Amino acid sequence: MKLDAKIPAGPIQDKWDSHRFNLKLISPANKRKYHIIVVGTGLAGASAAASLGELGYEVTAFCIQDSPRRAHSIAAQGGINAAKNYANDGDSIWRLFYDTVKGGDFRAREANVYRLAQVSVNIIDQCVAQGVPFAREYGGLLATRSFGGTQVTRTFYARGQTGQQLLLGAYQAMMRQVEKGKVTVHPRREMLDLVLVNGQARGVIVRNLITGEIERYAGHAVVLATGGYGNLYYLSTNAVNSNATAIWRCYKRGAAFANPCFTQIHPTCIPVSGSYQSKLTLMSESLRNDGRVWVPKMKGDKRPPLQIPEEERDYYLERKYPSFGNLVPRDIASRNAKEVCDAGRGVGETGLAVYLDFADTIERDGIDSVKDKYGNLFDMYERITGENGYVTPMRIYPAIHYTMGGLWVDYDLMSTIPGLFVLGEANFSDHGANRLGASALMQGLADGYFIIPYTIGNYLATTAVAPTATDSVEFKCTLDEVRGRIEKLLALRGNRTPRDFHREIGRIMWDYAGMGRNEKGLKHAIEELRRIRGEFWQDLVVPAGEDLNKNLEFAGRVADYAELGDLLAVDALHRKESCGGHFREESQTPEGEALRDDANFTYAAAWEFAGEDALPTLHKEPLAFEHVHLTQRSYK
Amino acid sequence: MSSDRMTLRLRIWRQMDADTPGKLVDYTVKDVSTHMSFLEMLDVLNEDLIRKAERPVEFDSDCREGICGTCGMVVNGMAHGPLDGTTVCQLHMRHFQDGDTITIEPWRSRAFPVIRDLVVDRGSLDRIIAAGGYVSVDTGGAPDANAVPISKISVDSAMDAAACIGCGACVAACPNGSAALFTAAKITHLSHLPQGQVERRERALRMVAQMDDEGFGNCSNHAECEAVCPKNISIRTIARMRREYLRGLVVR
């Protein structure tokens, strides 16, 4: 395997324009001859399916939910970044580019990030044209707010439901193409394998989650937009059906998996309350605009928060990072929360929480102003915890939220398998080792609306793609493998449920490959995962039934987590530096900040599957920083 | 037993598929924490059933934070349960008492065939959107986002309606099985915005026609939909839909 990022030549600000001109086109009349498979209908998948359908391609889209409108992009709350500079506060494409590269702790590809910043402005235009009800000022122009890791206000939002509104915009655009007959959507389908013909991605094997039938679909190219792998940790902010199976199956078919250890832990989630818990709920980072984070100065201080006087509170983010204060990037905010809790100053029953306090803002701006901006978040907090955040400070704790790692893609968003394109969170491309808030929505829509429609045409125009049919030997073989795996799962008659195994895997990942990682812990995790894989295939119990059987679905996903967790730990072990969300305890500054090792690790680590139980092969894509110079990140 | 642990009796609708008759089956769950969500309580029941080699209760859920619209069940006769403005995934067990009997049923409507147990087919809602619940703009070529100012009042009204999560509780609660609130929410959202003006007449006619074709009933102002809507969408949207529809008829 040879990694070729195919970064276009020329000055960074001209790369995308000149590349678009150099890309080969397919005439409008010929586009209808090409059939494209899109897996996943979140922001990236739905926007891709809609845009490709508009261009004239025949598109078949799949989603795991009962409706494409329910993809987990819908849960994004806070906003979407764009370099519009409507606030006249010094923003520009260059600055968004700079912030994103720096925020990613210098582990992203500069050319991709610059392009992302460029198309960010088109996304807002497109979404407004679709009728996305972004927040507005009284004069009728768009409102913006600020997010972590930046000093400008460039985040557009629709109350606390920005992801929902953007996704509905993309979903509606896609349903318009459904009505026109250009896109066919198959809901309640789970992709279980990729079909290669002559080394090219030519189709998918999916399971019909109602009938249980294993179905096969062929196309000229496959676009994967199946999201991240945060649910590997069992408790995360992901939806319960979010999973890694599609990307994992593609990895095992030859797509390189890049930087799996780059996972993001979100600082503002509602803390865990018990072992029955099925997921963690995030509260938008935008809360950090007005909320102040603190813990008691005194260890083990169990007084109710309102009884702790001002001078006995430690507003540790404001103290340690005076220029960014509560708005430091997510990785830093999370790590600091862990640090104060590890030091015994955590609050709440479990001691695994810090306060997020709105008292000052309520006094300054009035309760109505806070309600207007964050009302739905306070409501949600109250529903889950039974506490009123306007009266007592909220309790928050970090949780796994996003995965920067994913399938390796080149500048055209194509993986190492020809014809397999990967968009959105499923790829590794733009966020480096840490994603800034409000950048996931931006990337998903950039990939789907504005990048794949160009680059996929070039692939189809320049590649010989032989005719294939779903009754070919390649499809039959892959389908048999998928069926065999399901039969194997159903035949197990052990004692432990899929959830039980998932919980155990998640606990190991969180303890040893979570906010802090070290060599000993990672090696321990690798051993534990090996043990679990063995036990899984002996002691699992899955309810009988080949048709609708949600626990059978979960079982397949958990089996893949047990393997993916191993790759994540292997990657984390090899990356001896700290960077962004990957904090190796052996590599820190005297003040306890992440210490990068640029001399040895300025590359993306792309892992190639080398067979079951074999160590994967590491390929390195060197990263060059010509525009944003490598510096120790500082938000002091 | 500590005070935050409860024992509950559940009566759950079990049905193999749309063609097989279903029935309520009794279960007991012990050791339910008041901090659990309603769906986590069902998870605990299901884990128990799997270990006893019984078929778990199938139900849909995804985000479990009240925004995806996947979950939905009728709890003690109320769609999404007793708490106002709350999906069943955000309903927590602190709202129940030790010893309670809770009846759990699927959405019931002609246009939502039961797939199994509490899982229903809501594809009809997608088809209503496909009939016109969008602004017909292709990707690319959109004018600058600030080119057309939109008053805060308009955009707030649009957002109030756009908050619909498409869960179908409105249909389940309606004595007529009408999807009027769902359809009206989308029509209202787009009709408040300048971008939605060009197609507004056709949109209302087509979406309403699709709603009828799917077998949903008509609205006769019971307002049950508004009462159960987890996003508090107002039935004023239905009045607006009717105006849009009439205007569409007249102008056509």
Give structural notes.
Chain A is 38% helix and 14% strand. With 636 residues, chain A is an alpha+beta fold. In chain A, helix 10 (359-365) runs antiparallel to helix 11 and helix 14 (498-513) packs antiparallel against helix 15. Chain A is globular, with a radius of gyration of 24 Å. With 252 residues, chain B is an alpha+beta fold. In chain B, 34% of the residues lie in helices and 14% in strands. Chain B has helices at 38-51, 123-130, 152-162, 169-173, 180-191, 200-213, 224-228, 236-251; strands spanning 5-14, 23-33, 74-75, 78-79, 101-105, 114-116, 119-120. Chain B is elongated and about 60 Å long. The N and C termini of chain B lie far apart (68 Å). At the A-B interface, helix 3, helix 5, helix 6, helix 11 and helix 12 of A face helix 1, helix 2 and helix 3 of B.
- Biggest interface, CB < 8 A: A-B, 83 and 78 residues
Q: Determine the oligomeric state from the structure.
A: heterodimer
Based on DSSP secondary structure assignment, what is the total number of beta strands of chain A? 19
CATH C-level class of the largest domain in chain B is Mainly Alpha
CATH topology grouping of the largest domain in chain B:
Fumarate Reductase Iron-sulfur Protein, Chain B, domain 2
Task: State which percent range the strand residues of chain A make up.
Answer: 5-15%
The arrangement of helices and strands of chain B along the chain is: EEHEEEEEHHHHHHH
Question: Strand order across the biggest sheet of chain B?
Answer: 2-1-5-3-4
